[in-house]
Amino acid sequence: MRICFSLVLTGVFLLQTSCGSDDEDARKRPLATNDNDLPGVLKKGKLRVLAENSSTSYFIYKGKRMGFEYELLREFAEDLGVELEIITVNDLNEMNQRLNEGEGDLIACNYAVTRERQDVINFSRPFYQTNQVLIQRKQDTTKESDEVWKKYHVSDPLQLAKKKVDVWRNSSYYDRLVNLQDEIGATIYIRPTQGNQSVEELIEMVADGAIDYTVAERNVAQINEKFYDNLDVSLAISFKQNIAFGLRKDVPLLKKRLDAWLTKFMKKEAYRFIKRKYFDPYKQPVGATTVYATAKGGLSPFDHIMKAEAQKYGWDWRLLAALIYHESKFNPNARAFGGAYGMMQFMPGTGPKFGVYPSSTPEVQIRGGMKYIDKIDKMWKDIADPMERNKFILASYNAGAGHIKDAQKLAAKRGLNPKVWEDNVEKMVMNLGKREYYSDPVVTSGALRGTITYKYVRGIMARYESYKAMF
Predict the structure, then answer these.
(1) What average pLDDT does range 333-349 have in this prediction?
(2) Topology of the domain covering 24-129+241-279
(3) Which pLDDT score is estimated for 229?
(4) Please, are residues 314 and 386 in contact by the beta-carbon 8 Å criterion?
(5) N or C: which end of the chain has fewer CB atoms below 10 A?
């Protein structure tokens, strides 16, 4: 149930880099004349935010709206007593233009404050600081010798000479690499990408081996590092930069109110909690059961509970065990990204609905987990084959049924079988992180880091087969 991010993520682990550039169109266009300052926001009862679908700004996970900036602005909107409306922007090159045309009141896209951007828009008080880091792969010892790996691994910015680095053209990453060339006195082959390709898509391409390097803010890189265990995000290539919300230049009252609120809110534990939730990696508590099968002759200390609870719903307890192992390695105290907890990795907003809390016993956790699985199962009754339906259940458990329904619709639209997972719906799941797919009109749940869900289903089904051979 871990974040594979739906990301509205829709995809979508986007940002300063992600966020739009200060292009000439945005600079030349006249500011909107309608009342978008604070009195207008209060009168409309709505704060409109132009957001990027990304792991830092805004995404949907298991039906829940999430994102570091989203949660901050939700608190701000509550303080104002207005509704928060999120308007996702698929082409980041349009961000400033759409703000200045009055389509939104704020920009939230992990926006770094730069002098060039300040020519076009205004910024709130900074609420976070981060620097840019190089995204590269760790050594694959099964394929690469130390000698080969050292040719590609960059441990110092000087070693970027003659390296090919893919970044969005209208981003501060691109500008930083241009400046870095002068600083190191050598050419970096900067390969520009378009505004409809997010930094998180580029990070995934590095992880998959499609490209060798890209650049991201450290906070974005650290979130994405949790999803790809072969990434190295340790090398900083810039000084720290301020991250802030973007505003139009003609809304001084809204800026003043937002700045004052941020100054006050950032001193509270609530701010520190939100920040930890997204940027401070959880470490698995000591005691996760990983070798029980070989030491005790069973899969876990909880086999009897899994058998009893799975039987109530006609589920194979070995499939339940494979899911739980993947989620937590049978650790009742496991904690993960976004506050997910327990053996079944319930999200804070979901667990209580099934009677499961962080302090619940293993029996209660497993019982609640099976209730949740049964609820998901009922969503897929139109898939008659139980084994085929199980794959859709697993995918929904991981990503949320909304994303999988979107993948079904995309599959049908492209001539694939919407009721078959392998080589059909799973293909569309993997594509949901790409803007050309998650911006399709049939998609309603936004972007998803689909390769995570793809690997999740395949990994659990493979473990299930091995468990069936053992027990």
Answers:
(1) 89
(2) D-Maltodextrin-Binding Protein; domain 2 (3.40.190)
(3) 83
(4) no
(5) C
> Of the residues 94, 217, 327, 426, which is catalytic?
327
pLDDT tens track for 182-203: 999 999 999 998 766 788 889 9
pLDDT digits (tens, 9 = 90+) for 383-420: 999 999 999 999 999 999 999 999 999 999 999 999 99
- Of 27, 204, 257, the closest CA to residue 121 belongs to 27
CATH topology of domain 292-470: Lysozyme (1.10.530)
Q: How many CB atoms lie within 10 A of CB 172?
A: 26
Least confident range of 27-36, 243-252, 424-433? 27-36
Q: What is the mean pLDDT of the chain?
A: 87
**Domain residue spans of the chain:** 24-129+241-279, 132-232, 292-470
Collect all residues with Cβ–Cβ distance below 8 Å to 109 and sequence separation of at least 6: 14, 15, 16, 18, 19, 20, 50, 51, 52, 54, 57, 69, 89, 92, 95, 246
State in words which class domain 132-232 has.
alpha beta
Q: Is the pLDDT of residue 434 over 50?
A: yes
Domains 24-129+241-279 and 132-232 share a fold: yes
Q: Is 309 a catalytic residue?
A: no
